[in-house]
Amino acid sequence: MIFPVRSQGVHYFIEKPARPFIYLKNSKFYVCGWFFDAEGKAAKQIKVQSKKDVFFCHPMERTDIQKKYASADLSVDPMCGFERFCDLSRGIKFVQIFALLSSGLWIELSRHLVVVFKSKRWRKKRIEKKIDVFSSFPKPETPSVSPITQNSQWLKHSLLLFLNNPKTTLRFPVCSSPLLSIVISTRNRAELLYQCFQSILAYVGLPYELIVADNASTDETPLLLAKTEGIKTFRNDTDLEYLLSVNKAALLAKAPYLLLLNNDIILSPQSVEQMIRTMESYPRCAAVGCKLVRPDGTLQEAGSIVWADGSALAYGRNDPDPMKSEYNFVREVDYCSAACLLVRRELWEKLGGYDPQYAPAYYEDSDLCLSLWAMGYKVLYQPAALVFHYEFGSRPLETVKAMIEKNRWKFLEKWKQQLQLMHRDDGDVLKARDKRHQSVYLAEKEKKSSSFKGRILVLDDCVPHFMMGKGFPRAITILQLLEQLGYFVTFYPMLSQEYSKKHLEMAFMEKIELMIGWGPKRLEDFLQERKDYYDFIFVSRIHNFLHVAKLIKKRPDFFSKTKVLYDAEAIVARREILKKSLEGLTLKEKEKKELIDKELLLAQYAHRVVAVSKEEAQYFLQKGFDVHVLGHSIHCKPTESSFEQRSGFLFVGYMGEEGPNTDGLSWFSHYVLPHLKKKIHSNFEVLAIGQVSEDFVEQLSPLGIKFLGLVEDIQPFFEKCRVFIAPTRYAAGIPMKVHEAASYGLPVVASMLLAKQLAWTPGEELLAADSPEDFAACCEKLYQDASLWKKIRESALNKVKLDCDPKRFEENLLSLLTFPRNQ
Fold this sequence. Notes:
823 residues, Nucleotide-diphossugar_trans
């Protein structure tokens, strides 16, 4: 529930942004200010929200505000300040800033219209008329000062408030069968431990136990532990230091997973759940690390690299933007910091915990992860598990540096042989960041069994998911299979657009590097930064390959060590010729040939062409190009409902803009459906699934089409409906929607064009027609003839198994990435 700010008696000031209407030339939207309630308390949280994107601000110390209000006998929390850099996607955003009161109520502080990355064509006047509606609330009188990110005083103040209140107690849940054992070793810095405890209580939602070892703390730590219930804790009479203390504490664990946690860590929502999910999702995963971010918002670590000399590098360290694409994908790493590290307890116990030779601390986490690798297991970095780390909060920095150097020599001596196979210390961080790259240093015999195949850059319009149509389901299959086969995959979407969290989750590509936001204008810069990095560049669709072809002519040095593959996906000229014909523009044969030849000749800039069918491959072969066919990969999963249990027709496809899908469904609605309603006397529905524009819904809904939009699980609709329709009148390539429907055991009525593209026989694997009357007759016949329905269903299933065999698809994909050594 959101309440208006004016009813709450609070004091606040939004210093940045200073205006209700903001135009940004980049994606960084900076927010800072201060807030406290009528009692002087700072907000529990400040969040910046734009649609589904939510950013939580970092607290700041603002002694200037505290002093300003001291004269009014108001005790203001010095940590009343806040700031955050928000990474907004391109577009026009309605941004709101909210504060969470200690009572648990959210109140709105301000509203802003933010235009990000838009061209000069955006409708400025239309937006300016709405500025008054979205304008900020009046600003209080206090002046702004530079942000202060050092908040140790606030942490101590917060702890003392808790300890001095006899009514307050921290209560952790007691679980008889925990899934997770959280192990913390602490000495002093009770204020940090208190914040860590608070984050565990707030953000760990699965069954867990908390084990805390107190290394003879001399501050308020014993008092804090005394006021904490539901934990396993013990106090060492002397300071055992970190390593030995953790080993001792872990002996009390009984859950299958151990979470090693520093006392200066603050968890974030879902961070622990994401680590557990990763551990359970990937075979042979023994440890999972997280993204470590400092309280000031800079990146501490996104997985770490061990060089051949035993030295280590935290990938991305000190980057002010921890949300960059290169830090946001799951990957195999040499090791992750044990500041927050999830480990299988069974393996931890087999190793005997940390190697005691590294006591008191440092290099024990590197050694642990290399030991797990040596046992045949993997260590993964999971960016969705983001935590805040004060870093070196328990020791002076100079002491830490000395300890690290001392233990490096011990580490080097223990792992000398293995380190010879590690990344060379040549500064090539991009190559070293992925553990699989180490296979390039293996002997030729060992390389054959290595999982690493090389690095590949894939260019396509946008981040795909299975409900988009337009060849994107095939794109997902290619990307996922490349990663599974051992390739390091970077996906570069050429269109700059906003992606919701749901969209990215539906893409199922968390182990693929997604370079979102770069677009075609920055492609040259990107290839310059990663010159000689990729073994292959795989470019889908003709309009994207045009950009690459221009760069090949302009900067051939970018591609001297890289094979360029052009994935034609479809010969667009053939589709355009058909579209013109429907519009009444009949081209001469010479004009058709010129259009097709112009498109085909672009393939001269590729080392190899990929076609989706043998028919389209012939066009390229006739021009003398090296062509491989890569169609579709589909696992047949026939639905169980009988003919009698089903009803209605189903259409699936992308309807977000004008194209073959909107044309086909519109034609069906206007010209086929009236005939069909006369032929079938029982009630039936025509369901349309897929992204769709509001205008298209308004056009066809009155005609009897029921639009469902995007759905997370399409299988129930293939189970429910009786006939699939594919009334496509112009297209190129091959229609995956028909393959998909047939794989579910749903018979199809399609246009003759699609039947020809599939090389399927009408009356055997599907029914096909072009005129409205004939199409309606096919639909009626298949809808009411149970024996015909069963015949078409079985024939189509067999055809899909033959045409879309996943094993053959994999073999074809590997084949097109295999080149003779002399090429």
